[in-house]
Amino acid sequence: MIETMPKCWNQKTKPHFFCPGCGHAIILKQLGFVIDDLKLEQEVKFFIDIGCSLLAWNFYNFDTVQTHHGRTTPTAVGYKMAKPKKVVIGYMGDGGGYAIGLQSVLHAAFRNDPVTIILVNNENYAMTGGQMAPTTMPNEITTTTPTGKEVKFGPGMHGPELIRNIASDKAYIARTSMSAPEAVKIAIKKAIKTQIENNAFSFLEILSICPTNWKTDAEGSFERLKMAESYYHIGEIPPQKSSQK
Amino acid sequence: MIHETTIILFAGEGGQGVQTIAEVTAALAIGKGYNATYIPYFGVEQRGASSIAYVIISKGTIYYPRFDDADIIVVMRERALKDIKRFITPNTDVIFDSSTIEAKDIHKIATKTIGFPGSKYALTKFGAKSYNLLVLGVIGNYLGFDKTELWENVFEKLKSKFKSKEIEEKNKLALEFGAKIVLEKGEYSKAEFKADLGDKLYRNKEREGIIKPSLCKGCLICVEKCPVGALSKGSEVGFFGANIPDLNIEKCITCGICKRFCPDGAVAVEKR
Ligand SMILES: Cc1ncc(C[n+]2csc(CCOP(=O)(O)OP(=O)(O)O)c2C)c(N)n1
Ligand code: SF4
Ligand code: SF4
Ligand code: SF4
């Protein structure tokens, strides 16, 4: 029998709840492959936010905790404090991580809490109908910026770069894009290994697609993603030379 | 016929035009001097599930656009049956697409049933995209709207969607055809246009592939990403009512990209 899914996907809950062509599901697939490769199914505890990430509440064969909007990081950190041997992964949208939950993410980075945060940046508040997010790029049309995002709302927010400023040098902080699933897998592996081997904080932003709210077909979704890739920088954000954290 | 108040539930698959059918039905009633409401049903549990719309038509005031019991239910796909169950009373007329839904399945949940082989006529005569207009014809006729008025009103509402004269003409024919379909009572068409959800297997000497219509949502990302054009948009529809891809196993180079991308775990090819 040919396998079409990672082994740790809960087959009984498929088809899942994400829209046709959703980037979240493609990213959750790479995460699944990584957990299969590293044989971590028994060790992982998965924490999800409010936003489309919540649609993953029954996605995998491992335990998943549904938190409040923006509060995924502290809940995951609390769990890690109680069970330091478990591999703790927080998963959220850009609204959850950079808007309502930014201070939670910043403080986890500042304290160098040994958890892995995966943030899916689809550049909008997808679950609530495609409103402008801090990550929405200039001039983009959303339901709350019908004539395009104006300068007064700021440029697209660069989260990993911001977090790097206060994070420990041991922390792994990077941005990848869903257009390159192999690179996503490599980055997720590195992030998880940072937690397990270095007992340090790791943060990975993954640029993603949202065909429903950006109203794109398969081709259009990836064209838009290319635009996002040229606006945001892809790669690891290394510690600054002068820092002594 | 529209009574003092007529409560209608529309249920089908995303992509079948359920919401358009419901909205235009309400607009037609308003054009006739009735009060009418239309509201789509949204909810987390609704994601990836069937598409549902509430319509109320009344001579009096409508206080709330949702309801628990329906006078009429129009159901267009088998998968929506579980969602309409709770709206059925012994007096509800269930109008179903008899070319995709088995009469025996409808009779498990409803007593007053009326069939119309909508998918059969849409697919064989006009193309899948004309399905909503054909169903509008059926419903418009059932509710007693005048045939010529029906097209005028529908055209007014949907003209921006008709991108060419040809499409407009096709839709007009589908609507008029729908209005003339003789509704089935007791004797129903065969449900021969039901989506086949069995796995599609492909095989040659070097490799074997699988496509799962029961999971595929028809996003066509695999088609977009296949580097050698071995995948293409097929003509069959899957569980979600969307066209599923077709695989040319001879062209395939077993690169694994389709499996890596498919958000729904619905495709894979492996070396034998
Ligand atoms: C405390 C709180 N504020 C606001 C909301 C409403 N809300 C639900 S999802 C969401 C936005 C989610 O966007 P994002 O985090 O980017 O995730 P996406 O849906 O795009 O994946 C908002 C504002 C909420 N549920 N709770
Ligand atoms: S709204 Fe966008 S992000 Fe949310 S499930 Fe649909 S495609 Fe995915
Ligand atoms: S990527 Fe998957 S869900 Fe999308 S069309 Fe291909 S097989 Fe279907
Ligand atoms: S394995 Fe590669 S070549 Fe074969 S169908 Fe999939 S994407 Fe195309």
UniProtKB/TrEMBL annotation, chain B:
Origin superkingdom: Bacteria
InterPro entries (UniProt xref): 2-oxoglutarate_synth_KorC, 4Fe4S_Fe-S-bd, 4Fe4S_Fe_S_CS, Pyrv/ketoisovalerate_OxRed_cat, Pyrv_flavodox_OxRed_cen
SUPFAM superfamilies on file: 4Fe-4S ferredoxins, Pyruvate-ferredoxin oxidoreductase, PFOR, domain III
GO MF annotation terms: iron-sulfur cluster binding; metal ion binding; oxidoreductase activity, acting on the aldehyde or oxo group of donors
Residue ranges constituting the 4Fe-4S ferredoxin-type domain according to the UniProt record: 207-236, 243-272
Gene3D superfamilies for this protein: 3.30.70.20, Pyruvate-ferredoxin oxidoreductase, PFOR, domain III
Signal sequence, renumbered to the chain: none
Keyword Iron: yes
Keyword Transmembrane helix appears in the UniProt entry: no
Pfam family, one: Fer4_9
Keywords assigned by UniProt, alphabetized: Iron, Iron-sulfur, Metal-binding, Oxidoreductase
Official protein name in the record: 4Fe-4S ferredoxin-type domain-containing protein
Lineage: Bacteria, Candidatus Berkelbacteria
